[in-house]
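Table 4 source record.
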Amino acid sequence: MSCIIGKAEEKKISIGVEDAEDALSYPLNHDSRWLSEAIINVLDNSIKYSPKGSSIIISVSMRPGFVRIEIADTGIGIPREEYNKAMTRFYRGSRDEVANQKGSGVGLYLVSKIIRMHGGTVTIKPGRGTSPEYPGTVILMQIPE
């Protein structure tokens, strides 16, 4: 996690956590190492594809039967027509900004695989960015109790 914080600090990207107090105190019967890996992969992508000085918001909440983890950034976004492809192995996206970054295209694939191994789901949603250049992305992970 410290490497993620360092990357965010380097780009002056703030990472905030909302609504997490109740959910974080709830004991989950899952592999915390792998769930951490999934969250770190999402955060790494958010930092990599977000502009300097932007923000990332992590929301964690309990819902009946599952924990909901949402990571929202104001980066370049993932085009809707690429949502399904984005979680396939080695897919890197069609935008020039993606080609200019280091990566192998396994980050979101691994996230999806880890969350599915825990019986959960991963969904990509449109971001909340207000700029056409930086519309952002929301990655929603839902894990059963």
